[in-house]
Amino acid sequence: MGHCNCLILAALIYVASTQFIPPFTEDCRAEMYPPKGPTFKGAVSWYTVDLDLPPSKRWTALITDKKADLVSVIQAIKDLANAFVPSGRLIELVDITLPLMVDTLPNPYGDEIKGIAAVSGVPLGEVVLFNIFYEVFTVCTSVVAEDDKGNLLHGRNLDFGLFMGWDVKNKSWIISEKLKPLVVNLDFKRNNQTVFKSTNFAGYVGMLTGIKPHIFTLTMNERFSLDGGYIGILEWILGKRDGMWMSFLTRSVLENANSYEEAKALLAQTKLLAPAYFILGGNQTGQGCIITRSRLLSIDILEIDLKLGRWYVLETNYDHWKEPLFLDDRRTPAMKCMNQTLQKNISLKTMYDVLSTKPVLNKLTTYTTLMQVSEGKLESYIRDCPNPCMPW
Ligand SMILES: *[C@@H]1O[C@H](CO)[C@@H](O)[C@H](O)[C@H]1NC(C)=O
Ligand SMILES: *[C@@H]1O[C@H](CO)[C@@H](O)[C@H](O)[C@H]1NC(C)=O
Ligand SMILES: *[C@@H]1O[C@H](CO)[C@@H](O)[C@H](O)[C@H]1NC(C)=O
Ligand SMILES: *[C@@H]1O[C@H](CO)[C@@H](O)[C@H](O)[C@H]1NC(C)=O
Ligand SMILES: *[C@@H]1O[C@H](CO)[C@@H](O)[C@H](O)[C@H]1NC(C)=O
Questions:
Q1: In this predicted model, what pLDDT tens digit does every residue of 235-248 receive, in sequence order?
Q2: What torsion, rounded to 10 degrees, do the Cα atoms 267, 268, 272, 278 define?
Q3: Distance 287 CA to ligand 3 centre (A)
């Protein structure tokens, strides 16, 4: 435990104090696909985002549909903040300070966020808060694999809501549960043609999971580090604004990069507000990598290398050359299941099995997304992890 895992440890101590936690692991799952049963909570609906519209109008249709769910999750976040700072001062600060911040965000993001606030009726500062706290509380599993025909497959579990209020009675995370109705698939179009597709939370304008059909697939995972997100975000608020928000970079790459190599260079070289892992898949043999980022630069790039027998790369929230935190090892079970599957049997179907195995599937898992670049396919599923199940 050389580096700082304070966040995970804090969450652990909090939850452990509310209940006893056995290691809820299980044998690699099989025959989970098509998704069904208690780990499948529901399908995800599609919306179009028209990039030819002015930024303030792009999200109107989606937010009109999802308004009640968005208001409900933001209320839950406010309740948590008020429980934490009972004077109500924290939310007061959010309502006063964060609206000013929206004009410091690069466009089109600032204008899109203003549009979302206008349509939803949620105060602007609270929509800004909703758009920045993902940068801090996300733990995930992502994998890019190459099958024996040279197809690149990309899967991810998005695990969100770490220490966002543990519901002792339900044994669930309050915010993770409230986010599930906000999960949507988005088709971003220009000139009536798809530019990229994404799985996202309604109300959030950055990207964590997406595909540029036939070209590349991309997911982002949080990297906990001493030089973490808080410092960069604080610097941003204080006026030092030369780094890029991670999920805005992901979106900008999906929107603008036109090849695996171009995407890789942008993800490796753009200065960021916080460390991150980018998991990128291309459209040709050997094109799959994990980019481990510090705020300034790429520290390491691990690529698929068939000659070395490395037919997949897999990332959770730890540097691949280090051991994961022993209390939060999703990497070993996920790799064990990938290894058992074998390259000749990997497909979106068997990848879903891997991503359905506890603790790769856990109480934070809100959705699973599967992408196949050669078919331009993105599909996603809302998940549940019935007891007994690891809180993370
Ligand atoms: C807890 O579970 C009960 C019954 O299953 C449900 O009605 C309630 O909405 C749940 N609460 C949360 C916060 O998920
Ligand atoms: C957009 O494309 C769809 C098919 O993808 C077509 O049905 C529709 O008419 C097009 N709309 C416009 C305005 O061109
Ligand atoms: C793969 O991506 C490149 C752009 O990097 C593109 O030119 C090529 O057509 C794509 N190949 C396939 C099979 O779609
Ligand atoms: C999976 O296979 C790789 C490559 O052979 C190996 O390095 C790794 O230790 C294996 N991991 C597990 C958990 O079986
Ligand atoms: C791989 O797939 C074949 C059929 O294509 C099946 O017979 C075999 O049991 C599978 N292997 C594993 C490890 O799942």
A1: 777 777 878 888 99
A2: 60
A3: 12
Catalytic residue among 28, 140, 337, 389: 140
170 lines ligand 1 (CB under 6 A): yes
**Is the CB of residue 219 less than 8 Å from the CB of residue 288?**
no
Query: With a 6 A CB cut-off, is 4 part of the ligand 5 pocket?
Result: no
**Whole-prediction pTM:** 0.91
Has 289 been annotated as catalytic?
no
- Phi, psi dihedral angles at 93 (to 5 degrees): -60, -45
Say if residues 77 and 130 touch (Cβ distance below 8 Å). yes
Task: Please tell me the residue having the least CA distance from ligand 5 atom 6.
Answer: 345
Q: For the chain, what is the largest distance between any 2 Cα atoms, rounded to a whole number of angstroms? A: 60
76: which residues sit within 8 A by CB, 6+ positions away? 165, 174, 175, 178
What pLDDT score was predicted for residue 3? 38
Q: How far apart are CA 81 and CA 220, in angstroms?
A: 26
- The bridge status of strand 216-222 relative to strand 209-212 is antiparallel
Q: Which residues contact 374 (CB under 8 A, 6 or more apart)?
A: 151, 152, 214, 283
On average, the pLDDT of the chain sits at: 89
What are the structural domains of the chain? 40-383 (3.60.60.10)
Q: Which whole number is the average pLDDT over 15-31?
A: 72
